[in-house]
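Hello forum,

I keep getting stuck at the same step: I have a sequence, I want structure tokens, and every attempt I make locally crashes halfway through. Rather than fight my setup again tonight, could one of you with a working pipeline run this one for me? It's a single chain of 301 residues.
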Amino acid sequence: MGVTFTANTLLRSEIPGLKLLSRGKVRDVYDLNERLLIVATDRISAFDCVLPTPIPGKGALLNALSAFWFRKTGDVVPNHLITTDFAEILRALPPDVRLDPELYDRRLLLARKARRVDAECIVRGCLAGSGWKEYCEKGTLCGERLPQGLQEASPLPRPVFTPSTKAASGHDENISRERLSELAGADIAREIERLSLMLYDFASRHAQERGLILADTKFEFGFINDRLCVIDEMLTPDSSRFWDQSAFKPGASPANFDKQFVRDWLDQSAWDKRPPAPELPPAVVDGTARRYREAFRRLTR
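Reply #2:
Ran it on my machine without issues. Output:
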């Protein structure tokens, strides 16, 4: 795509003249009435905790990759993207707002405001993470019985939709389809499941053609003019597991191009998974940045 990631490191945005709507684990969101300005910082989180060490260039990469997917899947499922062009975004802001291009160019996404569905829409194609842990303990995945004898990283017989709550802080909680129907309404629950599986199938085939396995991912949805749309981010190494197809073998630790590299280091550290999180060593920062860049390179080529 001809995108470079040389912007200065940004851990926390400050934009005088704009109303800060929310500061998430990675993105800062500003209210522009009917629109949102989303700033992708270089923060990284793991185990529901924002780590103190940024990953240089990560925000620009995530922003570009989300925009790539929004544009590529726009005919499959509508989304909230308006533009990521810095000059266009500047024209959409109040005239007294100033943005340093050294800090903010390539990090910004202008989006239509949506009424969010308060659920994480997770689709799993392989057994990994909390899904593997549940299978080892109960032989199930989000309460659904799976075949016996599966190994860690095994492909599932079919992709499985496993929703969770969207927690403002702390841990998201896996929920059943029935609970999702109670929270969102039966019709909306069925539709976001259908759309999530459709997007996963599209992205999984795209990744496979480029030597990657999309092991799992999560989507968020919201209503724009009463139409369900994909919002937030999409199919990035922050929200997905991407594995190297050529080196893949169930039961073995997959070569990954995502946040698992950070999780693995934290698991091996003495950290008790409670704030404050430890600083990441330079080798982990560099290794994470290298994996994110490789995922971007393969997916967008």
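The longest strand covers residues 212-224. If your local run keeps crashing, start a new thread with the error log.
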